[in-house]
Amino acid sequence: MNNIYKNNRVFFILWGIVLFAVAIASTTSFAAEDQIKVWSKAETKVTVEKDGKKVEKKVPAVKVLPGKVVYYTTEYKNISKKSVDGINIINPIPKLTRYVSGSAYGDNASVSFSVDGGKTWGKADSLQVKNKEGKMVKAKASDFTHIRWKHKGALKSGSTKKAAFQVTLLKP
């Protein structure tokens, strides 16, 4: 086995582990654990042939090359017998990735972003960061560190909603 293949294999395995761990462990829900169940997945698209036609489908993000898009989806379900209010879902944007502008959405949720590790939040077009000269400038998608979805109103018992975003894998 040559070194290039061996290095690529190690890279893929490490990225698969990182992506899976981030998808599962990074989602935070501020509702009580006994009321809201939260699960996440990281996927990428592949082209397959179906009925003689080429179609894209999402598959778990195990092997992802730099420049490819990873689709993160977090689902949350009210497992209590009552409606639950005040649900916030927070996802960090994984290291060595860049948020894809405009890709964050959530079912019945407002979306906000952070550029300081989740200390402060705002709309994408209102956030600012310091540039190299120390001036405050409009934040770019590459400056975002976290995404927060605030569910609007109460989530009814048994209801499930989604929050999602996309990132592009950067070169290490």
Kindly describe this structure.
The chain is mainly beta. The protein has one domain: Immunoglobulin-like (Sandwich). 13% of the residues lie in helices and 42% in strands. Strands 2, 3, 4, 6, 7 and 12 form a 6-stranded antiparallel sheet that branches. Strands 1-5-11-8 form a 4-stranded antiparallel sheet, with no helix packed on it. It is flat.
Between the first and last Cα atoms, what is the distance in angstroms? 23 Å
Give the tally of structural domains.
1
Largest sheet: 6 strands, antiparallel
Instruction: Please write the CATH class name.
Output: Mainly Beta
**Approximately how much helix is present in the residues?**
10-25%
What is the CA-atom radius of gyration, in angstroms? 18 Å
Percent range for β-strand residues: 35-45%
Q: Give the overall shape, derived from the CA principal axes.
A: flat
Give me the CATH architecture, please. Sandwich
Quantity of strands, as a count = 12
In short, what is this structure?
The protein is mostly beta strands and 172 residues long. The protein has one domain: Immunoglobulin-like.
Topology at a glance:
Elements: H1 3-25, E1 28-29, E2 36-50, E3 53-60, E4 69-78, E5 88-92, E6 97-99, E7 105-106, E8 109-114, E9 128-130, E10 136-138, E11 146-151, E12 160-169
Describe the structure using short key phrases.
172 residues, mainly beta, Immunoglobulin-like, six-stranded antiparallel beta sheet, 42% strand
